[in-house]
Amino acid sequence: MTASTLEPSPVQAPVGGPLTWVRSRLFPNLRSSILTVLLTPLLAYALYRAVLFFFVNGRWDVVTRNLTLFMQGTYPRDQQWRIVTQIIVLAFAFGVGAATSAASQVDAAREAGLPVVKQGFLSVLKRFWSVIAFVLLLLYFANTATPWLVMGGAIAAFALGSLARFIPRRFRSVGWTLSVLALVAAFQVVAGTVGYSWMITAVVLAAGAWSAFKFEGVEGRRAVVYRGLAAVAAAVVTYLVYMQLVFPGVGWDHWSGLHLTLWVSAFAIVLSFPLGLILALARRSSFPVLRWLATGYIELIRGVPLITLLFMGQYILGFMLPQGTDPSSITRAITAMALFTAAYVAEIVRGGLQSIPHGQTEAALALGLPTGKMMRMIILPQALRAVIPALVGQFISIFKDSSLLEIIAIDEFLGVRSLVHAQADFRVVAHAETLVFVAIGYWAFAYAMSRESQRLEVRLRAGRK
Fold it and tell me: What are phi and psi for residue 214, nearest 5 degrees?
């Protein structure tokens, strides 16, 4: 494999000046020339009206005066430091994750004898330019220095996390553990550490201890026992620390705005993927009961609108739980969204599994591989690579469908508009401006997810032999 196979070949621009480009792209034949002549005035007029709306006639003071409301809704103002801290910790987590991922790719390239291609600032800008542009838009609308200070702190935290690339290769898993642990801490700095929150941290640290502790000269069952003891010790230490740590937070029933939208969407996506994967495998199982149950669940959920499941989660889910259990409205909504998305993920993954030639399964079984190992190492990696676009499309869909939470009285990003337009100054004006602002926010994150999907396809060579 040569370096040319790592990246797609760049498209060759036509030789010549601007006139050559215009002639080859806009007037290559009669039909295209007619379309260009007809559409150019319409596009010019639409651009003219858009410029007037954005820079002349728009009442953008509705965003400037309510920017905090759009971002965090009715979150208690005296607890805003929690969200600020969360943003900085999240930036640190992303910095550690990005640095660890880049270091792992460098190691893999060197092992394969391939040239190491480092990503510069421009490549990162191309990947996340929509989110960066939206953040700059928020800073433009800010009328205080606080958002600029928060952004500066986030950049510094990201740079600090990027130092994880210097972690020795032997302890590379420590970088992943630190990144996930920072994500958990970012959530708990707002939600608190009461209840069973210690379990999440214990699982993360136990997995990190299992991966990091590789005892020299110890193999086989003894190695498994030693690593298991290290994982158990990490979990026990976590429990003891959390029992001494009293850090109450703000329950997410008090969250709203864009802050709530992003967290609800993230939880729904993270929970739906493994559940959908299990359903897809169960639907292809040789056990009739598993296959019938999975098929019945998938077909039932796919035939019901999401809004119906959201209402059922609010008013019926409580009757299915033990007495005394009363999950919050946000928890009910996340449960409904995850169950809904899992059915579609299952069908997407099942399509990927069906695309794998049956000969690969027969070859793996002939080599004596157990069914679980065969699925984990041979079948599932190829199947998931083939369905990356469909999976990300479904995740983008559930991210946008989070706007339906407004119907069940949850003030997410779109629902905050009702609070804005309840103000006397904006009851009958600036409705279009707030709609456009919210639409830009949804588009920025959805487009970034789409771009990451395309990049992942290129990296994994999806759809190629």
Answer: -120, 105
User: Is the CA virtual torsion 75, 81, 85, 88 positive or negative?
Assistant: positive
pLDDT in tens, 91-106: 999 999 988 888 888 8
417 within domain boundaries: yes
pLDDT for res 463: 44
User: What is the C-alpha separation between 459 and 127, in angstroms, rounded?
Assistant: 14
d(CA 170, CA 215): 12
Packing angle of the helix pair 172-191, 197-212 (nearest 10 deg): 170
Q: What is the pLDDT of residue 264?
A: 95
Q: Could you tell me the CATH number of the domain that includes residue 306?
A: 1.10.3720.10
Locate all alpha helices (DSSP H) within 411-430, ordered by sequence: 416-420
Take residue 429 and report the two structure tokens written for it: 């004006």
User: What is the pLDDT at residue 16?
Assistant: 60
Which residue ranges of the chain lie beneath pLDDT 70?
Answer: 1-16, 116-117, 119-121, 215-220, 461-465
The single-letter code of the amino acid at 199 is M
Other Cβ atoms less than 10 A from the Cβ of 257: the count is: 23
Q: pTM to 2 decimals?
A: 0.88
Q: How many domains does the chain have?
A: 1
Residue 398 near residue 268, CB atoms below 8 Å: yes
- Residue 383 falls inside a structural domain: yes
Rounded Cα distance, 378 and 360, in Å: 8
Question: Does some domain include residue 458?
Answer: yes
Residues 180 and 201: their CA atoms lie apart, in Å, by 9
- State the Cα–Cα distance between residues 210 and 229, nearest whole angstrom: 9
Backbone angles phi, psi at 131, to 5 degrees: -70, -40
For the record, the structure tokens of 25 come out as 């792209």
391-430 residues labelled b (16+ CB within 10 A) or e (exposed): bbbbbbebbebbebbbebebbbbbbbbebbbeeeebeeeb
Domain range enclosing 296: 40-75+254-465
- The CA distances from residue 278 to 99, 294, 351, in Å, are 31, 9, 14
| Dist CA 69 CA 413 (whole Å) | 9
